Automatic annotation (TrEMBL):
InterPro entries: Benzoate_Transporter. It holds the Pfam family BenE. It comes from the Bacteria. Keywords: Membrane, Transmembrane, Transmembrane helix. GO terms for cellular component: plasma membrane. It comes from Aureimonas fodinaquatilis. The gene is benE. This is Benzoate/H(+) symporter BenE family transporter. The chain crosses the membrane at residues 32-52, 81-101, 113-133, 153-175, 196-216, 236-266, 278-301, 307-325, 337-368. GO terms for molecular function: benzoate transmembrane transporter activity.
Amino acid sequence: MAGLLAAVVAYTSSFSVVVQGLRGVGASPEQAASGLLALSVVMGLCSIVFSWRTRMPVSIAWSTPGAAFLAISGVPEGGFAAAVGAFVITGVLLVISGALRPVARLIGKVPRSLASAMLAGILFDLCLAPVRAFAEMPWQGALIALTFIAVGLWKRLFAVPVTALVTIGLVVAAMPADFSFANALGTQPVFVMPEFRFSAMIGIAVPLFIITMASQNVPGFAILKLNGYEPAPAPIFTATGIATMVSAPFGASVFNLAAITAALCAGEEAGPNRRLRYLSGISSGLAYIVFGLSAGLIVAFAELSPVLISAIAGLALLGAFAASVHGAMENLEEREAAAIAFIVTASGISFLGVSAAFWGLVVGAGIMTVQHLLKKAR
């Protein structure tokens, strides 16, 4: 159930950004729909393969910060074909990063307190969703929260699945009588021959690569490490790079390690037995494929009540948020740096096209380094 919920969270929280990003670099509506289909199916297959081979809950996702960057980039010279060429180059850069060991070493040196603080900052806004739901839809929000609390007191493992079923019931009950999903079906893949333009490589490929590495892969590995999993970064960089190169002609932008939804697949919500949590990565992959094949249908359902869908996601991540706050504040000597890392990350403010999660990690690491140097000098 955690894997399915992770897939639902990914779709409801960011699919619109992905479509806007593709449209922003010149994709037609059909090409944008094809891109969403390609992203969903390929990241599903990658999640299944990696989770099965590593026996870890490795979730592959699209780059939401990267899509936001594309949305404001403008149509490059050469149109969407040039953008597709830039996507291919981004994949090449990911493959190169997989071959360079310093990148993998950098990922493995993230302190636990900073990783916890960054994760807490990432989850903070999403965990506020139940409060927003109660403000906008009082009785529905209250019913969802009470269900979560009541079932959690009885059996914590069943709290999220039962609450999710209640939420789905509320959405279906509020569905307009004349609502039809017919127009949302029938997504077809559209092939676009890549066109390689130097301006698009510099203006799209390089920034997209940097944003994806800084805003998705670094937090993603940190979250897995926080939950006791340490997959080798190089194979993931290489595989996601190859996946990007192969699927780019169908409109897919870039693939990377999941960040926010990784907490659902790797945390306690995925089950008490850590050795079996890789099954949540597999189930999320299967869900991505199904959602991709019927992307329009899923999107139409989620749009009926995004407030309630976000509420169940926020409740599901409460445990991960609480554990992250505890991990961030546990080490007294690193508490101040971790607190600042949390604040910067939770602000949600991006700088130079890079998300707040990366800057939170950088600022926290900088403060921690200075503190250690001053301590040695005394």
